[in-house]
Every structure is written in C-alpha cells, then in structure tokens.
Amino acid sequence: MRAPRTRRSDPLAAAPQGRPVRRSRLVPLLSRSAPTYLCLIGLWVLLRGALLATGLLLQLVFDTLSGTGRAGMSAWSLIALVAAAEAAKVAVWYGVILSRVEPHFTYRIRAALQVNALGAILRRPAGRALDRTGGDAVSRFGEDTDEVGVFAIWSASNLARLIIAVGALIIMLGIDAVVTLGLVVPVVVMVLASRALARPLREYQHAGRRAASEVSSVVGEAVGGVQAIKVGRAEERFVARLRDANAVRLRFAIREVLLTTVQTSLFNGTAALGTGFVLLLAAASMRGGDFTVGDLALFVFYIQFITEAVTALGMFFARYQKAELSMRRVAELADDESAVIARTETYLRSEPPRRRRPGTVPRRCACCRRTASPPAIPGPRVASATSTSTCPPARSRS
Q1: What is the 3-state secondary structure of the chain?
Q2: Which candidate in 3, 116, 138, 302 could, as Cys together with 168 as Cys, close a disulfide (CB 3.0–4.6 Å)?
C-alpha cells in the first residue's frame, strides 16, 4: 500500500516570467472601504503633521537661544508647546490609530476576502468545489489574505508619510533651495535605479508562494494519511519529500529576502548620502550668514521625514507587488475575481442576523394559535411542533 502522493511542479517555472499584472485588484478592494481608508490616512497625516509643527517650534527655540530669533514667545514657552505637540501625538497614536482604527480595518479586509472566497467555493457544484490541494487552499485563505490586510494599513501609513515629506520639502525649499536640492537629487536617482529589481523580485515572490503551498500540501497529506504511511513503511520517503519541499521554499525565500534587502539598502544609503550633502551645504551657507542655527536644527529634524519617505517609497513597490500577487492567488482560489472584491458584511463587532432554514414555514402554536418562531441557523432541529411554542406556561384556574 503506497503513501498518497501529489503532483510536483517547479515553482519558478510556473511563475509568470516578468509579466505585469494587467489590472489592479487592490484598488477596487480598498475603494469598498474608502471612508475608513481615507479616515486612516487623515489620522496619520494629522499625527505626522504634529511632527512638522514640532520642527518649526524647534527652529524658533534655537533661534531664540542663539539670539537671532524675532521677538515673541520665550524659549520656555516654546519648549512647552513642543511638549504639548508630542503629548497630542502620543494620544492620537496609541489611543485611536493603534488600538481602534487599524485593527478593525485590517481584520475587516481579511474577513471580507475569506468570506467572499469561501462563498464562491460553496456555490460551485460539489464535484469541482475545490480544484486544488487542501494545503494550498489553507495557504491562500491564511497567508495571502493576511498579506492584503497588512498592506491596507501599511499603505495608509506610508501614503501619509509621503504627504508629510512633500510638506517638509516645501518648507525647506522656502528656507534654502540649494541645500534642499542636495537632498532630493540623489533620492530621484536611486528611485529610478531600484526599479530594475522589481521584475526578479516579483518572480521570486510568486515562486516562494507556490513552494509554501507545496509544503502545506505535503504536511496535509502526512496528517491525513498516517495509517497508509505506516503500513507502507514510507516514513523515511515522506520525510525526504518534506525536506526537499522545505529546501525549495527556503531557496526562494532567501532570494526574495535578499532582493528586498538590497532594494531597501539602496534607499537607506541614498538617505544617508543626502544627509551628508545637506550638512556640507548648510555649513557653507552658515559661514555666509544666510543660514541660522534654527534653520540647521529644522533641516536636521526634517531629514528623518525624507529618510522615512524614501525608505517607504522603496518598500512600497515590493509590498504592492506582493499584495497584488496575494489578491491574484485568492481570486484563483475562488475562480471569480468579481466575487472576491465584492462588498460584504463581516460582523466583527456584532452578531450576524439569525436566518431561517430554507424551506421552513411559520408554525401555529397548539394552545393559542399564534405564529411560533421557527428554529434559527445554527440550531438543533425541532422534533415536534409543540416544542416551538412561545406561549408562557398556562396558569391554573381557581
């Protein structure tokens, strides 16, 4: 008696060789939750906008301490305003975004994908309801929907980061355009250079997902066919299959992580190079008297916005491709793309409505002839009509 086996496939050979996704599936999905998504972006803009205000306050503080500032508030008053801005930032971050909006949004995206995909599978004929292995289906229901949900909140945060970076650039251009351009030019060059890594990264992401599905399929067979494996004395062969599948998955995962790390390192190095240009150009301007200590403090403080925006921009392409691939895998599982991205209720904060079983009709109570409620779904079947009576116990007549 042989142990069950599945068809093997080359993950890289099955991956699309550099073909771009024809139409985005993420944009229609996020548009279904546009109010929540825009609210999340607005909260992140408000949060990071407080940091822009903090930079302007620091400029005033250092100009006041150096004696080059204009007459107005004292240094201690400005420091109190900085502390108030930081306190407001922490309150919005931990009290609203991390504890309320983000968890609900990401779980609603995941639940909607899972409900729509499962509904599409259950609407198929029984003979072809699931045309792939159980391990592959579990991988798509779990890892792929999780990737899309995480990308939804991650993209909102980083879109707000890009908006605030544009605001910081406008402020810095108003102070000194030459110093600001010394930071922007290396960024533009590296953004164009990093796009060369997009094609091989997309191929390894797809191959890695297929290899992970193969590992899940082998583990599922081991759990479901323990008796057949033991009777056929195929323990060593099955362990060897699992080891080979894990080796393939490890190889593609290492390549994916390597390319992602190289892409991120390019942007991090670009940000560091731009920081050096800013400091050199600012030192030359300070010797000429056109650049104050407060301006230098503001530029040094705003460098973090440019650095974060550049790093986020480098990661955005890779994360977007990965989430788009996950959406495509979920759509393939359901075999109906429009059904996967359709609007659906998820009931994360309330119980779903109770429904009747198909084919049931209201019954009459035996004692008062009132309509009795039929059993709801889920629930045990009622053996007799008298057990569904909603009447109170009859009182004994005196």
Answers
A1: CCCCCCCCCCHHHHCCCCCCCCCCCHHHHHHCCHHHHHHHHHHHHHHHHHHHHHHHHHHHHHHHHHCCCCCCCCHHHHHHHHHHHHHHHHHHHHHHHHHHHHHHHHHHHHHHHHHHHHHHHHCCCHHHCCCCCHHHHHHHHHHHHHHHHHHHHHHHHHHHHHHHHHHHHHHHHHHCHHHHHHHHHHHHHHHHHHHHHHHHHHHHHHHHHHHHHHHHHHHHHHHHCHHHHHHCCCHHHHHHHHHHHHHHHHHHHHHHHHHHHHHHHHHHHHHHHHHHHHHHHHHHHHHCCCCCHHHHHHHHHHHHHHHHHHHHHHHHHHHHHHHHHHHHHHHHHHCCHHHHCCCCCCCCCCCCCCEECCCCCCEECCCCCCEECCCEECCCCCCCHHHHCCCCCCCCCC
A2: 302
Residue 303 phi/psi, 5-degree rounding, is: -60, -35
Q: CA 150 to CA 109: how far, in whole Å?
A: 9
Mean pLDDT of 100-104: 85
Q: Are 133 and 6 in contact (CB under 8 A)?
A: yes
Q: Characterize the bridge pairing of strands 355-356 and 376-377.
A: antiparallel
Q: Convert the pLDDT of each residue in 295-344 to its tens digit.
A: 888 887 887 787 778 778 767 877 888 888 888 888 888 887 777 887 77
Which one, of 302, 42, 308, 304, lies nearest residue 174 by Cα? 302
- How far apart CA 177 and CA 171 sit, in angstroms, is 10
Q: The pTM is what?
A: 0.64
Q: How confident is the model at residue 394 (pLDDT cuts 50, 70, 90)?
A: very low
AA identity, residue 276: G
